[in-house]
TrEMBL record:
Domain of life: Bacteria
Xref: InterPro entries: 6-blade_b-propeller_TolB-like, NHL_repeat, TRIM-NHL_E3_ligases
Name listed for the protein in its UniProt record: NHL repeat containing protein
Chain spans, region Disordered: 349-377
Organism listed in the record: Stenotrophobium rhamnosiphilum
UniProt NHL repeat ranges: 286-330
Length: 410
């Protein structure tokens, strides 16, 4: 594995990206390169997905998904099509099509996007989490144009919490024939046994039932007689607060429990409400939510999660620590990472700190603007891995640096 594994306090050189997409060079961090959005820029991107041919980036602050007919392999790469903007226009970034942003709640169309936060591919299907519109969009075949989705999940109402509503979801994943959604604003994870238009969830994690959720993180079990779980309770193996992403292969399930500064690992996709997680990453046990920790076994506001099917490594976008960590599949709570991207060791956490002096690197022009490099990250939000003959790569969405970083992991 190419990521740095240093954790003894000594400063090491961080893993070096082989190329990036979104900027003209490795130094610039300006969203959209300081101009209107185009087919080679990003702004606040959050997620990436590929099947080895098609390639998609959730370009969140541009309210669009960029699509590529092949995996980009150089600084000069450009997207082939855009989803979520009128007539496939790369220069637009409106949250709704041909209307003012303030009208979005009443004028959202099937083809519009508002803060898309996740893209995921499985068995020739694509999903996009349309966070600002409180829904998940599903394409039954991978789109190669600005085509409308096949259907949506989540009725767009946002609230109150119910089996068929979502409120600011940030993550979702196919799980074989099922769908799993990180319903962030409702402090819960929903599992749908069938993937169909406006489906209702069958299983809820993190809440007593389908009607609790908003402002009720770490909700207690049904045996606790407190209406709507309005009080804050101790952290347990079945509590969730602000989940930000999910990953599944149809059997295992990984949940990024963001506000509890941890990642939950389930050995099976749960079939019953409030199923307890088997293991926790980022905390020493299931009862801790910890402070904002660094080191090889701590997390700070984790976002994206990914389990590599070839190595079984679990990758975590440790956004608050400006790094991506890799872990072996856990067999005990509180395991330590085996590799890090974005930092030279496990004890440094500052954004864009190439010289590892605990301060962001600045451009040498006196304006105080940060400078990135091929080794630094700032608020990474998502990643994906893909292996081809002789090449294993990880694609990391470096959100605050407005770019996608690509590393060899051989």
């Amino acid at each position: 594995m190419a990521g740095c594994g240093g954790g003894d306090g000594a400063s090491n050189e961080a893993a070096k990206a082989i190329y990036q997409f979104g900027q003209a060079d490795f130094k610039d961090i300006t969203p959209n390169r300081g101009v209107a959005p185009s087919n080679n820029t990003l702004s606040g991107a959050a997620s990436v997905a590929t099947d080895g041919v098609k390639f998609y980036i959730a370009d969140t602050n541009n309210n669009r998904v960029l699509g590529f007919n092949s995996i980009p392999t150089s600084l000069s790469a450009t997207a082939d099509f855009v989803i979520g903007q009128p007539n496939g226009n790369f220069a637009k970034n409106d949250p709704c099509i041909a209307i003012a942003a303030s009208d979005c709640p009443i004028s959202t169309t099937l083809s519009s996007l508002n803060q898309p936060s996740k893209v995921s591919i499985d068995a020739g299907r694509l999903l996009v989490v349309d966070s600002g519109n409180d829904r998940v969009l599903v394409w039954n075949t991978l789109p190669a144009t600005n085509a409308a989705p096949s259907f949506t999940i989540g009725n767009g109402a946002g609230k109150p919490a119910a089996a068929d509503t979502l409120f600011g979801p940030l993550g979702a994943t196919f799980a074989g024939t099922k769908l799993v959604v990180a319903d962030t604003g409702n402090n819960r994870v929903l599992i749908y046994n069938t993937i169909s238009a406006l489906a209702s969830a069958n299983v809820v994690l993190g809440q007593r039932n389908f009607t609790t959720g908003q402002l009720t993180p770490n909700c207690p079990k049904d045996t606790v007689a407190i209406p709507d779980c309005t009080l804050d309770f101790a952290i347990t193996a079945d509590s969730i607060s602000g989940p930000s992403d999910v990953w599944s292969n149809g059997s295992k399930l990984v949940v990024s429990d963001q506000a509890n500064n941890r990642v939950l690992y389930f050995t099976q996709v749960p079939a019953a409400n409030q199923t307890a997680a088997a293991r926790v990453i980022g905390q020493s046990n299931m009862k801790n939510q910890g402070g904002f920790g660094s080191g090889p076994s701590a997390l700070k506001q984790p976002r994206g999660v990914w389990l590599d099917k070839n190595t079984s490594y679990i990758y975590v976008a440790d956004a608050g620590n400006n790094r991506v960590l890799a872990f072996n599949t856990p067999t005990a709570d509180g395991s330590s990472a085996i590799a890090v991207y974005g930092q030279g060791d496990y004890n440094h956490v500052t954004a864009n700190d190439d010289d590892q002096n605990n301060s962001p690197d600045l451009l040498n022009n006196g304006n105080g603007k940060q400078e990135a490099s091929e080794r630094t990250l700032s608020n990474p939000l998502g990643m994906a891995t893909f292996a081809t003959a002789g090449s294993n790569r990880i694609y990391i969405v470096d959100s605050n640096n407005a770019r996608l970083m690509v590393y060899d992991t051989n």
